[in-house]
Write a structure and sequence with these properties.
Helix content: 25-40%
Strand content: 5-15%
Structural class: alpha/beta
Radius of gyration: 19 Å
Number of strands: 6
Length: 248
């Protein structure tokens, strides 16, 4: 539902309608015949106005992707912001389902340039495990709860099948590429300074602490993906094999 939506590759029979979440008034044609709304917050939209427009048009259900940090780190800027977004959805007047995924497997793409150019990954917490989740599994769960009854007023935590450390992830990428990659561990402070180049300071503080294992509340392994889809969540190695070209 962006201005480039008409360029998206969609299955046969799917109707594409242009709209801009940053301009809720543009969404009126989007809601025609729609029963359920999938909402991936980017921070660039007025969520309340978007939901109000959808409700007024007769949309009955909204599925929102939040973050498991809302559970594990509710007092942090990211976790607290996720909770605020969830509350807007819960107050929308529509039936709602909230998906709380943990760290995306695709976050490894942050390493792609260094791997392509230097064969090196530099990050903190080399031996801190994290049950990273393939975004495709989030999509599978979203598809279920968008099209099935019985998911109203539910919060679903989502993780991958196993905890895998950054060091192990780098080895997995190396195997997929047929290359020996080098892992260089950063201190939490070095990681924090690196992240400040890409995100606000408070967010960098949280990510650096979680990455390095400092004050981390482990989310554990959640079985939600398999419970809802009947299929075990994909491993990090499966994700890498599907996206190896991004690291070449």
């Amino acid at each position: 539902m962006t201005r480039d939506a008409t360029r998206a590759v969609v299955p046969s029979g799917v109707e594409v309608v242009e709209g801009d979440l940053g301009r809720p008034e543009s969404l009126r044609p989007v809601w025609e015949g729609v029963e359920s709304l999938f909402l991936l917050r980017t921070g660039n939209e007025d969520t309340e106005a978007v939901l109000r427009s959808a409700r007024q048009a007769g949309v009955e259900h909204v599925v929102m992707v939040s973050s498991l940090l809302a559970e594990t780190h509710p007092g942090s800027p990211i976790g607290g912001g996720a909770l605020q977004g969830e509350q807007v959805v819960r107050d929308s007047g529509m039936s709602w389902t909230i998906l709380r995924p943990w760290e995306f497997a695709s976050n490894a793409l942050w390493w792609a340039w260094e791997i392509r150019e230097h064969g090196v990954v530099r990050t903190a917490g080399g031996d801190v495990g994290s049950p990273v989740i393939d975004p495709a599994d989030i999509a599978s769960v979203a598809g279920r709860v968008l099209t099935e009854r019985g998911h109203g007023e539910r919060i679903y935590p989502l993780t991958g099948p196993v905890e895998i450390t950054p060091r192990e992830r780098v080895r997995s990428i190396g195997r997929a590429l047929g290359r020996d990659l080098v892992f260089e561990e950063l201190t939490a402070e070095e990681e924090r300074e690196r992240l400040k180049q890409f995100m606000p300071e408070e967010a960098a503080d949280l990510v650096a602490d979680v990455d390095s294992g400092g004050g981390q509340q482990d989310p554990g392994i959640r079985t939600t993906v398999e419970d809802l889809t009947g299929i075990p969540p994909r491993t990090f190695e499966q994700w890498v094999n599907d996206h190896a070209d991004s690291f070449r």
